[in-house]
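Hi R.,

Here's the chain you asked about this morning:
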Amino acid sequence: MAKGYAARWPGSPGKNAWMVAAVIILTAQGVVAQKVRVEEELEAYPTESVDLRCEFVDGGSLTKLTQVSWIWEPVDGQRDNIAVFHPTYGQSFPNMAFKDRVIFLHKELRIPSIRINNLRMSDAGRYTCEYATYPSGNEQGTTTLIMLAKPKNSARAVTVQAGSRSVAVARCEAADGKPAATIQWLSSVGGNHSTTISNGSDGTVTVRSEYRLVPTAADNGREVICRVEQRTQDRPWTEVLRLSVEYPPTVTIEGYDNNWYVGRSDAVLFCQAKANPEPTTITWTTASGSLPDTVVVEHNKLMVRKVDDAVNTTFTCEVKNKHGASRQTLTTFVIEEKREPVEEPQTGAVVGGILGTLILIGAVIAIVFLIRKYQQNTEGPPKHKPPPPVKAGSSTEMLNKPSEPPTATETVPLSPGEVYYEPTGGEPVTILDEDANEALNGGAPPVLNKDAADGHHGNDSSNHGPSSANIPRGESFVSTPMYV
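And the predicted structure, written out as tokens:
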């Protein structure tokens, strides 16, 4: 048909070939359009119901439908007819496994949807809606039914005995689930786990896990957590387990205070035992075998009614459970007088006081340091450079010193035998700067004052000491003596 249509179409050979391909594609699409519409995949749970929908899509052709059948394929290669509908002969359910559980939702050939009630895990598989048609032959569509099952989760601790071999101390199980569950262990005990998987006849899966370790007495009562995750669960399932490790008793004696004085009436000893299971018997004895008459025993407590020399002995406490026995001894000493307790220094208070004092001292030192630093920052360095120091009595000072008017002095007569010393000038001056002195005199030697050279009371040199010009520099601070 397509070949004849291309032969009648005018044009180039290449164009004709393109048109032939287009006609073939359109024809194939027309054939595909006549198909069976179904859902590709469905999920369901046991005891529930599921609807398998099927519809024949005609596409406007003149295909005639003869009958429709539902075929179940639980595994590859196995095909079982479970439901048939014929417009004339009605419906039929040839498979006994689905009898009374399958019904047609519509008594119409073009919509042969069915419902399966009271589902079983074994109902999983492929379901094919197959039409017998004319003239195109059989048309079909397949739906895969996935059966899901929530696992039955459980966990328990296993009672074990302390030992040196690794054993299972806890078990966790997720039974009859689909798909298979995942089991995890959360613990700080430090063991390991092993997991096994087994398949059921109905397609379910059971997962079992064991938590293993080398058990010790310290592991008794510790916690491990079983965590189960599976597709059908909204959230992970968890169970907290307390390990149960059995071990023989360990014994200690408490209550002795080294102050059993003669006449004391409240002396008590306690036999403390740790064991799993609980101790079955607790027995008190002494080194001599029997207990003194002043001693009373109540379970694990030994009470002395009145302390005397009879309890100056060694006490033994023996504890038993199904895994063994353990004992502990204690020697008591009876003293004549009561020993007054010595108040021990409160170490905590002393240490606290020392630390508090050190902290206070450190705080005071820090405050003083900050205050001094603040004062230094406030005063600051000088804002100008001070002038260099000037030598006292130097020529520069003498030049810069302003002249003062002479002042009148009152002369007081001297008493007989008194000696008067008159200074040669205002203040004794020692000229250290020779160059400056020569500069002041135009480079000539220094000239002494005439009046000072002649004296104050005449020109008789015999009545005067040496001239001031001849006085050594060391004696220039004392004037020439004058005799009256």
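Residues 1-34, 394-401, 406-412, 418-478 have pLDDT under 50 and may be disordered.

Let me know if you need anything else.
M.
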